[in-house]
Amino acid sequence: MHQIKRTLEEHSDELIDELTGGIGLTRTEATLFLREAGPALIASYVWHSSTLPPSGLATEHGARELLSAMSGSRLAPRVGLSSARTWDGLRALVPAVLRAGSDEPARPGD
After folding, report:
1. What is d(CA 90, CA 34) in angstroms, rounded to the nearest whole number?
2. CA-to-CA distance for 30 and 48, rounded, in angstroms?
3. Which of 43, 80, 97, 103 has a Cα-to-Cα distance from 3 of 20 to 30 A?
4. Residue 98: CB atoms within 10 Å
């Protein structure tokens, strides 16, 4: 399992808290956001995994690279938010996932 997928699953409560406290989503909105944005983040990670070393993911550069391959406008209707609010969510979620994942040792298959 990819490290990002594992982090999304194992730290979902923390990530939902980040979205509710950080940008003011309701718990229901944050849960939906996490469920819908997770696959886009995983796809971006897979896309960039060959160019970013694992140690470089939990950096501002790593977050920017992952965000660059994500589409807030495609995600917005699925989460019921404006594009601007969706981008706010992505800009909060991606670094939070990278921070949470950097605290864990890599496992085989990551």
Report:
1. 9
2. 25
3. 80
4. 22
Which run of H or of E encompasses 105?
A: none
Any alpha helices (H) in 1-110, and if so which ranges? 3-10, 12-23, 27-48, 54-57, 60-68, 72-79, 83-102
In angstroms, rounded to a whole number, what is the distance separating the alpha carbons of residues 43 and 80?
21
Q: How long a stretch of residues is the chain?
A: 110
Supply φ then ψ for residue 65, to 5 degrees.
Answer: -65, -45
Q: What does each of the 110 residues of the chain score in pLDDT, given as a tens digit? A: 478 899 999 999 999 999 999 899 999 999 999 999 999 999 998 888 777 766 666 778 888 989 999 999 999 999 999 999 999 999 999 999 999 987 655 544 44
